[in-house]
Amino acid sequence: MVLLYFIAAFAVIVPAVAGPLLAYGPGRRLARGRLAAKTHQAVAGLVVTLGRPMTALVFVLFWAAVIVAVFWPVGILAHRLENVIDWPVLLWVTDRRSPGFEDFNWWYTALGDRDPLKIVVVVAAVLFAPFWRKRFWIPLVAILASFPLEQYVQAILAGMVNRGHPPTGLGSYPSGGIARVVMTFGAIALFIALTWKLRRRWHVLLGTVVLIMATYEGYSRIYTQKHWLTDVISGLLFGPALFLGYALAVGILAGRYPRPVPPPAAAEAEVPVEAAPAAAPVVSATAP
């Protein structure tokens, strides 16, 4: 039982430390790498051709297809590891749960359920809309779209892998609760960063808070035995991966990615300088 408390603390401390390290380390290098440059170039070309709304839609659909292609074989692998990893973990947790801590985890894990997050998404979209004035439709569309995007991509993967669920819960692959926490609160953090000018450290803090929430959501799903361990691990990868594409699509829609290139300054018209009149020759008088 004590070990479960230690793992719970671990589920909070690790993302709290890893979030800033990832943001200032691999995250910064990735943003400056060749792949990011190629993506920037391709998206810029699409924006010129299709416009920002259509480019954002095409990009998010493309990203969703990539996520499905990547996480389908991961799900098959997770299914094959069920007897090796998932069942031993499930039985180990069953023997060590405590009633008081279990009540807390049941309360927390409800954070990732669909019904409460539907309310959060609607309220967030309505609250952000006035701050965007004439472009009020951007937070309305983008924040509301985060929910069905996660739901349908996760449902496609669950149907393709079709691995079932633990006998103690109905959770499927990958953990939708974790992904919903990432997408919903990640969208809120994203629009906080887009709406107000904040320093980079505040962006990192917002992302770290979302990461902590998602990681503990995963722990609570294991503790309450709603998911297999491999479902949770996959959800912790699936949620941020899907959110990355969503965030880029929102940046495209909002005009933040790729950043608009200012038009070249018009060449200053050259003002012709009138030539000064030639001086009259001076004839010196000579004495007769």
From TrEMBL:
Pfam families: PAP2. It comes from the Bacteria. Residues 171-246 form the Phosphatidic acid phosphatase type 2/haloperoxidase domain. Keywords: Membrane, Transmembrane, Transmembrane helix. The chain crosses the membrane at residues 56-78, 136-157, 177-196, 203-220, 232-254. This is Phosphatidic acid phosphatase type 2/haloperoxidase domain-containing protein. It comes from Actinoplanes auranticolor.
